[in-house]
């Protein structure tokens, strides 16, 4: 695996992406992949700039989301470098559970791309998690059964990312 598709950040119902590029008329060099079905909002760069110029509080929130995403990317890169695939997979499952709940539609191939590993590695880890009673997995459907045990097996990065989020978004609350 060359890392061309490895996940370095995740945005869900608690985030935004691309605002800083839109505000500064910059080019986004990122490749964004929708992992699971859901609802999202899309706004043109011109429209976003117009609203951000008119609403300083809106601009401030967009900047906070950008700051959080950068912190998340830095944490993911460090995590990918130092934690084993099993711990990273559990961290990924925690984040997905927080975003969409216990039921996930995904293939081993897709999860392997997110983890930056071979499909066979994901199959081994999914089998181990299933044997341990943490998940059930069948034909592209994963169900998280034991969240506390997944938390125990996960690296600390999910909590670190949550801490970054809380610090950034509570820093100027009134």
Dominant shape: elongated
Please compute the radius of gyration using only Cα atoms: 17 Å
Total strands: the figure is 3
Largest sheet: 3 strands, antiparallel
Order of helices and strands: HHHHEHHEEHH
Contiguous uncertain segments of 5+ residues: none
The secondary structure category is mainly alpha
Tally of distinct domains: 1
Name of the CATH superfamily:
Winged helix-like DNA-binding domain superfamily/Winged helix DNA-binding domain
Enter the CATH topology name.
Answer: Arc Repressor Mutant, subunit A
The fraction of residues in strands falls at 5-15%
Give me the side-by-side strand order of the main sheet. Answer: 1-3-2
> What's the CATH architecture?
Orthogonal Bundle
Number of helices: 8
CATH class descriptor name:
Mainly Alpha
Task: Explain this structure.
The model has no long low-confidence stretch (mean pLDDT 86). This protein has helices at 19-23, 45-54, 56-82, 85-100, 108-115, 119-131, 147-153, 157-170, and strands at residues 103-105, 135-138, 141-144. It is 57% helix and 6% strand. It has one domain: Arc Repressor Mutant, subunit A (Orthogonal Bundle), CATH 1.10.10.10. It is built from 8 helices and 3 strands, in the order ααααβααββαα. It is mainly alpha-helical and 174 residues long. The longest helix has 27 residues, at 56-82.
């Amino acid at each position: 695996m060359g890392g061309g598709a490895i996940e370095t950040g995740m945005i869900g119902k608690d985030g935004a992406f691309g605002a800083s590029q839109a505000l500064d008329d910059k080019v986004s060099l990122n490749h964004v992949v929708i992992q699971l079905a859901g609802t999202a909002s899309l706004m043109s760069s011109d429209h976003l700039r117009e609203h951000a110029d008119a609403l300083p509080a809106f601009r401030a929130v967009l900047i906070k989301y950008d700051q959080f995403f950068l912190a998340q990317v830095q944490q993911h890169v460090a995590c990918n470098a130092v934690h084993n695939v099993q711990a990273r997979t559990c961290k990924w499952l925690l984040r997905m559970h927080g975003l969409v709940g216990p039921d996930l539609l995904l293939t081993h191939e897709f999860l392997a791309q997110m983890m930056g590993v071979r499909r066979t590695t994901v199959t081994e880890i999914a089998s181990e998690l299933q044997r341990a009673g943490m998940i059930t997995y069948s034909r592209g459907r994963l169900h998280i059964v034991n969240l506390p045990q997944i938390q125990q097996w996960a690296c600390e990065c999910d909590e670190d990312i949550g801490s970054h989020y809380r610090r950034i978004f509570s820093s100027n609350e009134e």
